[in-house]
Design a protein that fits this description.
The protein is α/β, with parallel strands linked by helices. The chain folds into three domains: about 5-205, Rossmann fold, CATH 3.40.50; about 215-305; about 305-465, Serine Threonine Protein Phosphatase 5, Tetratricopeptide repeat. Helix content is about 60%, strand content about 5%. The protein has helices at about 5-20, 40-50, 75-85, 90-100, 120-135, 155-165, 205-215, 220-235, 240-260, 260-275, 285-300, 305-325, 325-345, 345-365, 370-380, 385-390, 395-405, 410-425, 430-445, and strands at about 30-35, 60-65, 140-145, 170-180, 195-200. A five-stranded parallel beta sheet has the order 2-3-4-1-5, with helices on both faces. Helix 6 links the parallel strand 3 and strand 4 (about 170-180). The radius of gyration is 25 Å and the shape is globular.
Length: about 475
């Protein structure tokens, strides 16, 4: 790791804090890393780094992104992922053996789980046996859990508590990530004195990112763009529209000099994105119109970066039309966005655009709702199960299932039920409903304050604000 890299220096702070809080604490079994939302990627990098041969801490880290779906099946899911990772680590195991540091662990007992033993207990046995097989004993094993999806934080907390009650083996620790001020995974540690620790490391991540992004020649258009973007973000946070416009104009000037249509279009979209905080500013529609035109020109001249920018521009146009209550044009912009994304096989983006068009038609133009819903459903048919589970397509499929059921289309009902059951389980309707409640707000971008939304009961289906 480059010790002069600002991000690396922030990771060094986490490592130093970990050593201070954890080293020598033999009773410790669980570490709760308290983070701010914007620090999530940094902590993911920290845990993945420590799970690699380049880790700096004394402990042996194993990081898993296994999704948490249910507290009664999570242990088995981790075991399955553990064995898959182990089986795919042949080169690393051979390298350890060549260095006389062979790992002597036997995975055979965990290939078929013992039905007479609780899965949680078998997971703890796996961790204990793996830790005992590590070379250069004594070593501490840390299982770091970063589920890419958590169905229910209360159930996740309950699962963690169950492991503590069973007794996490000596030399084994579990690390989880929680959010400062939210305490989603707060555990009552009275029955487990000294076994649970929570800490937050004060970081200067925003400053580190800015220093990293703006390092280099200030006359370089891309560096100038990033400099202006950070200044505009600060101005937007301070609600200083005059300062935002100043840096926005500097951004346009710098990127126009570059001669790259993609960068010039990006600047217009970034500027417009900032102005969604000031939606009545007359500059906003001008920027969107020009961004769309520049992206089209760039695409026609072979700048492939302009394809994603044009898709994004259509979404911004739809968002702006929506917040101006021009619902018909908003739907059309989202449909253009969906069509272009689908044409180029960006299916996750396409179904998101379809979802925005469908939801807006449901609320504001119901005569088009079922026609658009059918087209949206068909768009996602080629998607893989993994793509569906991590996109909004499941919401569209659930709505289309209800439509098919009401209109007595048994073949279609069976088709949707079979696919969704395979992905989400037999209670897929309940699982999708939970996902929708947890995800729908994050889909509505940029986030507008409640008083800025066109209706208090509506979600603002708008494109991602670039910060």
């Amino acid at each position: 790791m480059n010790e002069h890299n600002p991000i690396a220096l922030e990771i060094n702070k986490i490592q130093a804090y970990w050593r201070k809080a954890v080293t020598g604490n033999d009773a410790l079994r669980m570490v709760r890393l308290m983070i701010l939302p914007e620090e999530a990627r940094l902590y993911e990098g920290f845990l993945k780094l420590e799970s690699s041969p380049h880790g700096q801490l004394e402990e042996v880290f194993v990081t898993h992104l296994t999704p948490f779906e249910d507290e009664d099946t999570f242990s088995a899911a981790i075991i399955k992922d553990w064995l898959t990772t182990y089986d795919n680590s042949t080169a690393l195991l051979q390298e350890l053996e060549a260095k006389d540091s062979a790992l002597t662990w036997d995975p055979a007992p965990y290939r078929q789980l013992n039905a007479s033993l609780p899965q949680d207990k078998q997971l703890l046995q796996l961790l204990q046996s793996f830790r005992a097989a590590l070379p250069e004993q004594p070593r501490t094993l840390v299982l770091a859990l970063l589920p890419w999806q958590v169905s229910d934080t209360r159930s996740f907390t309950s699962w963690l508590t169950r492991l503590l009650k069973l007794g996490i083996p000596a030399g084994v620790r579990i690390a989880v990530v929680d959010h400062v001020g939210k305490d989603y995974l707060l555990i009552n540690d009275r029955p487990f004195p000294g076994q649970v620790i929570s800490f937050h490391v004060p970081l200067q991540l925003a400053d580190a990112i800015q220093r990293l992004a703006t390092a280099g020649n200030p006359n370089d258009p891309e560096i100038a763009y990033r400099k202006c973007l950070f200044e505009m973000g600060n101005a937007a946070k301070d609600k200083d529209i005059k300062r935002l416009h100043y840096w926005g104009e500097r951004m346009l000037e710098a990127t126009q000099r570059s001669g790259y249509k993609g960068l010039f279009a990006t600047a217009h979209l970034s500027y417009a994105g900032m102005l969604f905080n000031f939606k009545r500013d007359p500059k906003l529609p001008q920027l969107l119109e020009k961004a769309t035109r520049i992206a089209k020109q760039g695409l026609q001249t072979g700048d492939q970066a302009c394809l994603s920018l044009l898709i994004q521009a259509y979404g911004y146009q739809g968002a702006y039309a929506q917040i101006r209550r021009n619902y018909g044009p908003a739907i059309e912009w989202f449909l253009q966005q969906a069509a272009l994304a689908e044409q180029h096989q960006f299916l996750a983006q396409a179904v998101t655009s379809w979802y925005q068009a469908v939801e807006l038609s449901r609320r504001k133009d119901s005569s088009r709702y079922h026609t658009l819903l059918e087209k949206a459903y068909k768009c996602g048919i080629p998607m893989t199960d993994d793509e569906i589970s991590s996109s909004v397509y499941s919401f569209l499929a659930a709505d289309y299932y209800d439509y098919a059921y009401t209109n007595k289309q048994p073949a279609l009902v069976s088709e949707i039920d079979e696919r969704m059951s395979r992905i989400f389980g037999k209670n897929w309707k309940e699982e999708v409903d939970k996902l929708k409640k947890s995800k729908v707000k994050s889909l509505m971008q940029p986030q507008l304050s409640e008083e800025e939304e066109e209706d208090a009961e509506e979600t603002a289906d708008t494109p991602a604000q670039k910060r």
